[in-house]
Design brief:
Layout: H1 3-20, H2 35-47, H3 52-67, H4 71-95, H5 105-130, H6 141-165, H7 168-176, H8 180-198, H9 204-207, H10 212-221, H11 224-244, H12 249-301, H13 303-330, H14 335-363, E1 371-373, H15 375-392, E2 396-401, E3 408-410, H16 412-431, E4 439-448, E5 451-458, H17 465-468, H18 486-496, E6 500-503, E7 513-519
Parallel strand pairs: 2-4
Antiparallel strand pairs: 1-3, 4-5, 5-7, 6-7
Helix pairs in contact: 1-2, 1-3, 2-6, 3-4, 4-5, 5-6, 5-12, 6-11, 6-12, 8-10, 8-11, 10-11, 10-12, 11-12, 13-14, 13-15, 15-16, 16-18
Length: 527
């Protein structure tokens, strides 16, 4: 820590103490709200025990400038407090593995419980040393203890996690991504706080529960930093109102206990919601990688056929270019015929490019991208990609498009993957059967006003009734070379779009029928 940072910490500590020290207890330095304790704990968690001397110095300076505590009481009190909080934060960092930024439910729970005990010990030591002050009364001990303990605990529980998150990266992130919804959330929070604490006509104890509404809203939608900021705003409004309305000590302490309940609830709910979002993102990322692996595996299956498909246009290109060259060498006047041959060459080049494009798009790694998807073209691409595999096994594929099938909003690559997965599964099912009828029918139509339906039916052996209920589970396959993830990924893709994938009741010997329902407008565009 540089000298300038140490000076800034002392100044911030004193400033927080000056702002929050509005309810002294019969002239004693006992406060129901101590955000400066939260700042001290945050710095100890971030910098370790090496910062303990600065915490003691800042507290002693604040005692002299703000609370006017005699040095003979201030020095042992603040040194004892610094030692206790340093020992607690060291225990958190080194033994309990709790470290900044305190954004996980487990870390926050351990932090709250540990700091409750630390505040208990610190409060006991502070009151024991305050007994040496001349106007101390032993009858006040219980009230003083509750007042100081809740003041330290709420200051630490709310402000330590908040200060730990107010680094440059967090501030930059808040400036970059501040949605309009957040403005509304903070406006509602401020309005609720003013209604609950600022109006003489309202009973703050009866209406306090209203403050849970914006805090829960922020916890579920805004993240932990925004939730902590909103609760800090509520705390400031509450303490300002208690000072301006000259509330008695008992009411202030009772309100602080309610505020502590709000802080613990809001913090843990926000951390849980954030952890869930992280888990969902991790699952989505893994699913995307698995889907890409499945596409690559599928492309490997049809690579031989694709190589044959590319060989034909390449040979045609060589023949057309050679014929045009020979024609012009023999008779330069036959330019029109040479141009016709070159036009045919261009057609074959475009055909080869189309084959390569489909394979490249199919196997590329991409983020989930909602775009306008021509379902007819996508399904034709799927049929053309799987045509070599179907031809190799003597399977005829028929595509039927309804007249009322609209352009849909979806991820085109993922829709293509679903269609290719269903076609390749049907081709392999027929290939393993000796039936002379080897047909696949793919049909797209309007399912209802908001959805389209894709149906793939085949003339294969059909689904095994015993396996049918597990067919959409990962790694369930009947093929020796199969990955067993195609149908699981296809269902996940359909559901991620807000649709569904299912099959008809198994009828062994009569083929299998799979249906995919996709919304015309992507689910994510409704949010």
């Amino acid at each position: 820590m540089t000298l300038s940072r140490c000076a800034f910490f002392v100044a911030a500590f004193v400033a927080l103490d000056a702002i929050s020290y509005v309810h002294g207890f019969h002239g004693l330095p006992i406060s129901p709200w101590n955000p400066n304790s939260g700042l001290a704990v945050a710095m100890l968690l971030r910098h370790g025990m090496a910062f303990a001397p600065m915490v003691a110095v800042a507290a002693i300076v604040s005692d002299q400038l703000v609370r006017e505590v005699p040095l003979v009481v201030s020095i042992p009190t603040e040194i004892t407090s610094a030692v206790l909080y340093t020992a607690t934060t060291t225990l958190l960092r080194n033994r309990l593995r709790v470290a900044p930024p305190l954004d996980k439910p487990r870390a926050l729970t351990i932090f709250f419980l540990t700091m409750a005990l630390a505040a208990l010990l610190t409060t006991g030591a502070r009151i024991a040393l305050a007994a040496h002050l001349p106007h101390f009364e032993t009858d006040w001990v219980a009230a003083m203890f509750l007042r100081q303990w809740v003041g330290d605990l709420i200051g630490i529980s709310l402000f330590a996690p908040l200060f730990l998150r107010l680094d440059r990266d967090t501030v930059r992130e808040l400036r970059r991504g501040w949605p309009m919804e957040r403005d509304g959330q903070f406006a509602v929070t401020l309005l609720m706080a003013v209604v609950v604490f600022g109006l003489e006509a309202t009973d703050e104890f009866q209406f306090f529960y209203l403050l849970f509404l914006p805090v829960i809203w922020l916890a579920l939608r805004g993240g932990i930093t925004a939730t902590l900021t909103a609760m800090a705003l509520i705390q400031v409004v509450m303490m300002a109102a208690t000072y301006l309305r000259d509330m008695d000590d008992g009411r202030v302490t009772a309100l602080q206990f309610l505020m502590l309940t709000l802080v613990l609830t809001g913090s843990l709910m926000a951390a849980t919601a954030q952890a869930r979002r992280r888990a969902e993102l991790a699952i989505r990322t893994r699913m995307d990688e698995l889907a890409r692996m499945s596409r690559i595996h599928t492309s490997n299956e049809i690579a031989t056929g694709m190589a044959h498909e590319l060989k034909q246009p390449m040979l045609a290109i060589v023949n057309y270019v050679g014929a045009a060259r020979r024609l012009l060498e023999r008779d330069p006047a036959q330019v029109d015929e040479a141009l016709r041959l070159m036009h045919n060459t261009d057609t074959q080049v475009m055909r080869a490019d189309s084959i390569i494009r489909r394979m490249r798009d199919f196997t590329r790694k991409s983020e989930f991208l909602v775009e306008a998807v021509d379902l007819g073209r996508t399904l034709r691409d799927a049929v053309e990609m799987t045509e070599p595999l179907a031809r190799r096994h003597g399977v005829d594929v028929t595509l039927m498009m309804g007249d009322d099938v609209p352009v849909i909003r979806a991820d085109g690559v993922q829709v293509l993957q679903v269609a290719v997965n269903l076609l390749t599964n049907a081709i392999h099912a027929i290939a393993e059967d000796d039936s002379p009828q080897r047909l696949i029918r793919m049909e797209a139509c309007r399912h209802d006003p908001k959805n389209v339906r894709l149906t793939v039916s085949d003339s294969g052996p059909g689904l095994d009734p015993e396996r049918a209920e597990h067919i959409f589970e990962p790694f369930v396959t009947t093929r020796a070379q199969g990955m067993g993830v195609g149908l699981a990924i296809s269902r996940a893709i359909a559901e991620h779009h807000g649709g569904a994938l299912w099959h008809d009741a198994p009828q062994p010997g009569h083929g299998a029928v799979f249906h995919v329902r996709l919304p015309i407008k992507a689910r994510h565009e409704h949010d």
